[in-house]
Model the fold of this input.
Amino acid sequence: MEMSNRPRRFRRTPLIRELVAQTKISTDQLIQPYFVTDGEGVKVEIGGMPGIYRESVDSLVKSIEEDYKLGLNKIMLFGVTERKDAMAAGAADDKNPVVLAIRKLKDRFGEDLFVSADVCLCAYTDTGHCGVTVDGEIDNDTSLPILARMALVLAQSGCDCVGPSDMMDGRVGAIRETLEAHDLTGTIIMAYTAKYASSYYGPFREAAASAPGKGDRKGYQMDFRNRTEALRELMLDEEEGADIVMVKPALAYLDIISDFQRNTELPIAAYNVSGEYAAVKLMARSGQADEKSLVLENLTAIRRAGASIILTYHLRDILKNEWRLS
Ligand code: PBG
Ligand code: ZN
Done:
């Protein structure tokens, strides 16, 4: 049979496949999340997330020293604390475990470790919501100065990058203005621009002890039926001064990542979230799939859709096992 086009020619040998591969992943653009909590000598594995821990500052610094030896040098910190109240006082407190961790890590590593930190109130409010409650409602505008103060305290402690994940309107602008007013001109804002209300955050909420006591997050996180609204959020975050724009979760939202790629010059990040990680671990542990192959396929899909930066809990495993990612 005569055919002028045979796409299978490119699939014939490993070297030919390598030659024509379009998408490659580098660990240079992956960020590992960590959970830091109060106390000393605490290190508790998180249910549903094997290999991921909630740890006190002393333990966290040791873990990061070990991970650094593997080549891991970009991290995102999340705070976990028992200290919760109506106005999220713990969020912008300089005894906050995240602030203490950043100071230690920056003393120890300086610019050899890229440190980013989450900016959100849900770990610090008694309601577990990402903004503060006034008269029974999540109050957007009352939350803004608290978020901005939290970002300021993190930046002052030496954080390279702050990541607002609260989804209040105007928060990127409020944070940028506060940072500028304090001459913190070098702090990167990685905005959770299109953060959807997702069931894939399940394991994280246990990790961060941040599940809302009542209700859900649909009043501020995006509705997964909506696509163009993500572009509206993108435009606003760009105007307000974001440096990096993020889509979250990643795998069920590849269309949104791809929309971002066609509509922004900014670097695009995607958050490969806790539930996506847990699903991989479940399949791998029950022998239904090879873990490395799953991780490679998932991260490549996220990269192919248009994200250059990926926040992923898999990074430590990738480095530890020396998985080749291309
Ligand atoms: C808090 C926050 C969440 C995640 C990152 N920041 C959870 C949520 O919104 O409930 C999710 C991360 C993950 O699932 O890995 N605002
Ligand atoms: Zn939150």
Observations:
- The two ends are 34 Å apart (CA to CA).
